[in-house]
Automatic annotation (TrEMBL):
Highest taxon of the lineage: Bacteria
Domain ABC transporter as annotated: residue spans: 5-227
Gene Ontology terms, MF aspect: ATP binding; ATP hydrolysis activity
Keyword annotations of the record: ATP-binding, Nucleotide-binding
Protein name: ABC transporter ATP-binding protein
Length: 237
């Protein structure tokens, strides 16, 4: 089944501050989508709302036309940063927890990923470096056989060699027909695997285009095009 993720007129405030305003987005098919935007633009908030981790927004969020939270959560694998996990837990125990909670958890795939990423299952969370922790989050998130993957800055603490290795492998790990949304500040590194680009700016989505369309229409790389969105704004100030 072709996956469809729809966000319709999403509005979200926290402590009287407007964080997302009239956000609408429709993503369909077997794609990898880059969610770009400067610090504080609202990328994490948008992913948390779609994943159902953050609540109380106005608007409609649906996956395959299903809007109820339980169904959405069962269809979406979100790179939750393990905040609720006790730090004395070993990687193997975190894996056990995921396996119990998510019926779609594929242990074989998880094992392949932790071998590829050289994770030691006996290590406790408290002993993990930032990058190793992120590798664990990527493994846990992609081990689920979900319809939608939301990866929020998955590579920020990971060394550049491992980052390239992961980015080059992500297409193999992504199940056919699933949608993957990746937010990242290393635009040039992820650009080669992106099918579409979504840019969040000034509390809303200002661009949603196919990566190839951007390259053809603007004659620019994705990174240069993205940076030009900010350059133009500055010159208008
Ligand atoms: N709990 C909160 N209470 C109040 N404001 C919040 C809260 N969480 C986020 N914000 C604000 O919402 C805005 C969007 O934050 P968000 O973390 O979604 O941005 P982001 O695009 O993911 O940024 P980054 O690239 O730095 O991760 C920011 O201005 C932030 O200060």
């Amino acid at each position: 089944m072709t996956t469809t993720l729809k966000v319709e007129n999403l509005n979200y405030r926290r402590n009287l501050k407007r964080i997302l305003a009239d956000v609408s987005l429709s993503l369909t098919g077997n794609k990898i989508v880059g969610l770009l935007g400067e610090n504080g633009a609202g990328k994490t908030t948008l992913m948390r709302l779609i994943a159902g981790v953050a609540k109380n927004a106005k608007g409609i969020i649906s996956v395959n036309d299903k809007t109820d939270l339980a169904t959405r959560k069962s269809l979406i694998s979100y790179s939750n940063p393990l905040g609720g996990m006790a730090t004395n837990k070993r990687i193997s125990e975190v894996k056990d927890f995921y396996q119990q909670v998510y019926p779609d958890f594929d242990e074989q795939k998880y094992n392949q990923m932790i071998t590829f990423l050289k994770l030691d299952e006996s290590q406790r969370l408290s002993a993990l470096s930032k990058g190793t922790r992120e590798k664990l989050v990527i493994s846990l998130t992609l081990a689920r056989q979900a319809s939608v993957y939301l990866l929020d800055e998955p590579f920020s603490g990971i060394d550049s060699m491992s980052r390239k290795k992961i980015i080059n492998s992500i297409i193999q790990w992504k199940p056919a027909d699933s949608l993957m949304v990746i937010s990242d500040h290393y635009v040039s590194e992820i650009a080669p695997i992106l099918d579409e680009i979504v840019v969040v700016k000034d509390n809303t989505i200002v661009v949603h285009k196919a990566a190839d369309t951007i390259r053809e229409e603007s004659g620019q790389s994705i990174e240069d095009y993205y940076e030009s969105l900010y350059g133009e704004a500055d010159s208008n100030d």
